[in-house]
Amino acid sequence: MAAPGEPCAGPGVWNQSEPEPAVNHLLSLCFLRAAGVWLPPLYLWVLGPFYLLYIHHHGQGYLRMSPLFKAKMVLGLALILLCTFNVAVPLWRIQQGQSQTPEVLIHPTVWLTTMSFAMFLVHVERKKGVRASGVLFGYWLLCCLLPAISAVQQASSGDFQSDPLHHLSTYLCLSLVMAEFVLSCLVDQPPFFQNGPQQSNPCPEAGASFPSKVLFWWASRLLWKGYRKSLRPEELWNLERENTSEELVSQLEREWLRNHGVAQGCTMGLKGSEHENQAGQELEALLPQRRHPRGPLLGAIWRVFRCSFLLGTLSLIIADAFRFAVPKLLSLFLEFMGDLQAPAWQGSLLALLLLLSAGLQTLFEQQHMYRLKLLQMRLRSALIGLVYRKVLVLSPGAHKSSAVGDVVNLLSVDVQRLSESVLYLNGLWLPLLWMVVCFAYLWQLLGPSAFTAIAVFLGLLPLNFFISKKKTHHQEEQMRQKDSRARLTGFILRTMRTIKSHGWEEAFLERVLHIRGRELGALRTSTLLFSVSLVSFQVSTFLVALVVFAVHTLVAEENAMDAEKAFVTLTVLGILNKAQAFLPFSIHCVVQARVSFDRLAAFLYLEEVDPGAVVLSPSRCPPGKDCITIQDGTFTWSRESPPCLHRINLTVPQGCLLAIVGPVGAGKSSLLSALLGELSKLEGSVSMQGSVAYVPQEAWVQNTSVVENVCFQQELNLPWLETVLQACALGPDVESFPAGMHTPTGEQGMNLSGGQKQRLSLARAVYRKAAVYLLDDPLAALDAHVGQHVFHQVIGPRGLLQGTTRILVTHALHVLPHVDQVMVLEDGGITEMGSYQELLHRKGALVALLEAARQPGGGGDGETEPAANTSDPGGGGPEHRPERSIKSASTRNSVISASQTRAPLDDPKGTGQPTQEGSVRYGRVKAAMYLSYLQAVGIPLCTYTLFLFLCQQVASFCRGYWLSLWADDPVVDGQQMQTALRGWVFGLLGCLQAVGLFASMAAVFIGGVQASSLLFRRLLWDVARSPIGFFERTPVGKLLNYFSKEMDMVDVEIPDKLQALLTYTFGLLEVCLAVTMVTPLAIVAILPLMLLYARFQSLYVATSCQLRRMESASYSSVCSHVAETFQGSAVVRAFQAQGHFVAQSDALMDANQRVSFPRLVADRWLATNLELLGNGLVFVAAMCAVLSKDHLRAGLVGFSVSAALQVTQTLQWVIRSWTDLENSMVSVERVQDYTHTPKEAPWMLPTCAAQPPWPHGGQIEFRDFGLRHWPELPLAVRGVSFKVQAGEKVGIVGRTGAGKSSLAGGLLRLQEAAEGGIWIDGVPIAQVGLHTLRSRITIIPQDPILVPGSLRMNLDLRQEHSDEALWAALETVQLKAFVASLPGQLLYECAESGDDLSVGQKQLLCLARALLRKTQILILDEATAAVDLGTELQMQEALGHWFARCTVLLIAHRLRSVMDCARVLVMDNGQVVESGSPAQLLAQEGLFYRLAQESGLV
Question: Which of its termini does the chain have fewer beta carbons within 10 Å around, N or C?
């Protein structure tokens, strides 16, 4: 091979007798040839060993000998033979006595060994399954350099005849190397033996060639598909194993536990269903307490993700090396333009080097972005997995301190910010390195004058540190207010039925908006400080230029401005400007991330359930042995609270049915929680044998189908499932459901009635076939008939659970004769325990409870055994129709009858999900969305903002143009005559630009806050004004995602993207004006580039916006699942189903990541290709200057090329900002999803027929009233006509699903009448505003709801009553002593939903709240279902005293509750079938008589 051995020769190539310009020295043929000889071997021998080590540990399988591999080996062998020939020729000539220089022998020898090494790499790559090699791609590209230079030189010399062998060798070498380079651009076939299973839709990156990988062309097919049609989730690529949640969370968990020295094998959550039976034993604490919360988590994250981060950082450093090569090349280019004797090829080569340098900078920078964006995706998945596993082990005390809204906010905002901060970590130190290099350039250009820049930066440091500190303070305040808002919003959404029933919407909206105002105030201050920070760094850059130029030109008289100093300095200052902008933004993001990281770590440190609190043996207990044992047990809900159970000693033999009774607040539910290990055990021991099933007092239902709720992650056993459903009285309900067993239950079971939810919860436990059953008052929400059926068919001695160990907490004292043991609890201690007959003979606490439950006059004893003829509920099919039939029947927007959609029990495909509001849209964001946002900002403010941006950009253009005039000033006697004037005007223009920049940025951020406030208010109003059916169909987690993540995008992202778009757009206009002024020919290149840019952008945006919407929708599912698990974590732990729920969470997160990954790849595809296209403009501008060298001055050339260097990145950032803004605008689109959804009637009417003091009497009249819950469903209530006189007390009874609660809903207009109407005191309620109506009616619903806040707020939400009135109401409901014992008494802060109180205590507080409203109409909707019978009688007496003159509608399951009513309405199948006094109805021996028989009253 001749080329490597050719010595440097030729006239004028190497003449050391005369000094040459740097451009001639660096671009001499000798230097280029030396680089061509030594660069390829140096490159391969440095990277090759590391590459071998990498592919040795990351093998992908085995490649067969494909034609591509064979061609590479043949060409490589030919190159080796050619190199051998080039070594042999000099040796032969030396042997012949010809003199040869050393390099003639050394160079071919080095190439021979390097070529042999390259062929060895090709062979190893085939063994390890490498289909495309980036290392060898770079090697063959470098190898083309030397033969190309030699071939050009030889072809131009024309001396082929003198040495034909040398020429042929050079041309052959060039041909072979270029052929190898072409082959390296291709990709080999897949490995023969692949590691891991085959995927149905794998990511095409693995099968892409190296150029396709670095340019992201492998994603083009998906982008084109998204441009042409709507993408579906199944069309997206499957995740590689290293990107799945299971893999990422396991790695992070392992490193975290290692940081704390946890024993190997401990795990905080189960990895799969195979560990389900050992879940309780393997459950370990996530974190040891009393440690600094930030360090361990940070260390674990670093260990898992450090390689990816360091690789991305290395790519960025290499990109920066090329970034700083651009000013040097520009300096050489301007030097070339000033040298009239320089050959033209040098200018062309410099233009090509400018293009290559900018292109390589783009490629490495985009690889850095790709690596770190992928790291962000992985980190987010791992952190969400950690949070979810933490949710599964939170203690009840931790539930009190962390609400559902907090957890959703943690996932939607904090984890997102923490993952995004990864991109800006290098921004904390790398800009400082940029500054150092920039100072070195300035020193080289301007000498000691560059030192003055240091003083400018040091002087501004204290200001920026002060701003950062203040910004941190306001950021923390904003996050605190955001948490408060999320918590309150979550409560409102979950309890909207109660809020609407009381007409409290406005009061709660005012509370939310008050918190929102404080949040936006902190955000406004934080963003203004951010604007000051950005502008201060911009001003510092300008001050550097001003001070350096002034000192350089004024202090030393011989120093004059010239083109090289001015425009190379401007280019360096452009890099310095990026550093100054990047540094504060990085600090801002990292500050936000630190706050979020602390919040995340604090959540992960919350108290957890003690896995060792209960000794649980998986084997079943043998007959006759004790299955449950508690010895000297003392328990508390949290370490800070007093004990709730004292000195408990309990033994329950296998197969025993133990009933636990006692007054409200005695600790019955707490005892079951202690058996489950939910409480903190202060002393004693607890042990159980066998698997456990748990039925909570408040039913927890998953947002899935009925069959999935019952099976609860277990295999479907159809005969057993049907048996369980019939025993739990769910058979007739399921038959009436639209899709049968596969009907969705809705969020929190909203599509079911309270009784249906409770029976579904019981069926889930029964289907389990457990050894131990813990039943927390499952009969409370059932009417007497269904309750007796459930007891005898399921719980009782002959039920499905016979032979198992059952602990039943109940207020239904009539079932006590059928149990084996009875335990009485009072004040957290066991009062007595024994069989029912034993306790009767003792005449102790049980007898006292029974006496208190007796009706006055002895009409019906609580212990009376009910009639035995109630075991078969199936005889009256219509009697068991659900009270609220399924509200959502089909995923399609069509009405499907029950007979059409009922699916077989073993056919899950018959199910449907509720129609989701705000489903995924396709295409680009409509212009109306931008217009609506701008209208929210305000048209005057928008106009003013544009004017400010125009003014500051005009000042910027004038400043740059003035500097070019300064550089072109003639030099007379070594000086420029107008230096002082130039400096003063330059400084004035810079100051004007700084002021305009701050004003324009501040205007954007202030407008963003204004728009956020208005859009949030509209969203809150639209949701609050929606009818109750909307909340029954829409998952709460989805709505919370709108109020948290989507509003966070509107709050932060949109103003930031809009500010960036305006900044870069006006900057682009300035640069285009400058380029076209100096070199008009450049417009020929700018226009086609802009057209290409527009084409790329239109191709990208349609797909990107679709992916953005799909990502948001899938992330809502993740948040909903976490919120659902948070509320039912006790049930999940009791059933030991953590492994299944973890797998489900991982699957939902992977579905979200399947959308996130194509989106980030699409971003890189756009940026890479746009920047490479834009780099062509630099080449065009430089080549135009080379071609016009004879009549262009160096100053004009510098102005043109430096501007062209800016236009590429500026135009790319314009499109990127535009795209990011459009993606963020999807959030505006989503928060307006509910603008056009149906709304309920007006809250207030300007002319209302009901004028105060309406209602003065309280007369209620139903006239042929009927209603349906949804238009596509049949009437739930029909043909109801009756009149309730003023002051009359009317009871409403009926079986479950008869329509009792629907009457109350119709009276409150929660559902509007489908036919007929209701009149109150002669006024039709349809003509009364909803708040006017609901504020004049008091309802105590079946589910007691407490407001987050103090007890006083719960009793008197509008602060209308004195403390004396509150205490009187508490005394009436027998809670005065209890409240007086609480810390703070009336100011005691209730946990979310009152979780620190028993259900009975919460119901009593709701009764006290009703007493204070003093309305003429009272509705009691199963209000006493959760209290014992004695307390119920006393409450009835209190209600009779307080509401003696009021009209009372009493909806009850317990017939004894209505026996003192003046009249009773008996409902069946949505109609009133009987009406009269209790005595009259009993005498008729109709349905009421049969219900009384079932309740043991007759």
Answer: C
**pLDDT > 90: percent of the chain:** 13
Could you give the residue ranges of the DSSP H alpha helices within 1188-1312?
A: 1194-1231, 1300-1307
Cis peptide before 1253 (omega within 30 of 0): yes
How far is it, in rounded angstroms, from Cα 241 to Cα 247?
Answer: 7
The whole-angstrom separation of Cα 898 and Cα 783 is 26
Instruction: Report the amino acid identity of residue 836.
Output: Y
Residue 1248 pLDDT:
67
Rounded distance between C-alpha atoms, residue 424 and residue 431, angstroms: 11
Are residues 1219 and 1166 in contact, defined by beta-carbon separation less than 8 angstroms?
yes
The burial of 381, by beta-carbon neighbours within 10 Å (0-12 exposed, 13-18 middle, 19 or more buried), is given as buried
The Cα-based distances of 314 to 214, 307, 317, 368, 1138 in angstroms read 16, 10, 5, 8, 41
Low-confidence ranges of the chain (pLDDT < 50): 1-7, 9-19, 262-292, 855-919
Angle between helices 939-968 and 505-554 (to 10 degrees): 10
**Quick one: 1410 exposed, middle or buried, by C-beta within 10 A (0-12, 13-18, 19+)?**
buried
Q: How many helical (H) and strand (E) elements, i.e. helices and strands, does the chain have? A: 51, 24
Task: Say which amino acid occupies 423.
Answer: L
Which of 825, 850, 892, 884 minimizes the C-alpha distance to 650?
Answer: 825
The secondary structure of 897-960 as a DSSP string is -HHHHPBPTT-GGG---PPPTTPPP-SSPPHHHHHHHHHHH-HHHHHHHHHHHHHHHHHHHHHH
pLDDT value for 375: 94
Cα 728 from Cα 718, distance rounded (Å): 15
Query: What are phi and psi for residue 1475, nearest 5 degrees?
Result: -150, 135
In 681-749, alpha helices (H): 706-711, 718-727, 731-736
Q: Give me the pLDDT at residue 823, please.
A: 92
Angle formed at CA 1358 by CA 1355 and CA 1363, multiple of 5 degrees: 50
Strand pairing report for 1260-1267 and 1315-1320:
antiparallel
Q: Tell me how far apart the alpha carbons of residues 1260 and 930 are, in angstroms, rounded to a whole number.
A: 51
Q: For residue 1340, which phi and psi values (nearest 5 degrees)?
A: -110, 105
Confirm if 40 and 114 have CB atoms less than 8 A apart.
yes
CA distance 635 to 958: 77
CA 351 to chain centre: 47
Residue pointed to by tokens 């909206």: 509
332 burial (CB, 10 Å; 0-12 / 13-18 / 19+) is: buried
Burial profile 1135-1163: b = 16 or more Cβ within 10 angstroms, e = fewer: bbbbbbbbbbbbebbbbbbbbbbbbbbbb
Q: What is the DSSP letter of 779?
A: T
Q: CA 1059 to CA 488: how far, in whole Å? A: 32
| Cα–Cα dist 1211/543, whole Å | 26
In terms of Cα–Cα distance, which of 1409, 1453, 1448 is closest to 1427?
1453
pLDDT score, position 869: 33
CA–CA separation, 1490 and 1484 (whole Å)? 10
Residue linked to tokens 């077989």: 904
Q: Is this prediction's pTM over 0.90?
A: no
How many other C-beta atoms lie within 10 A of the C-beta of residue 631? 14
Distance CA 1150, CA 1138 (A): 18
653: amino acid identity, one letter: P
**Range list of β-strands (E), 577-669:** 615-617, 626-636, 645-653, 657-661
Longest dimension (CA), the chain: 138
Q: Alpha-carbon distance 602 to 599, whole Å?
A: 5
- Looking at residue 1250, what is its pLDDT? 66
Q: Which helix or strand (DSSP H or E) is residue 857 part of?
A: none
Q: What is the pLDDT of residue 408?
A: 82
446 in Cβ contact with 569 (< 8 Å): yes
Cα angle, residue 1011 at apex, residues 1010 and 1012 outer, rounded to 5°: 90
Nearest to 1293 by CA among 1490, 1028, 1438: 1490
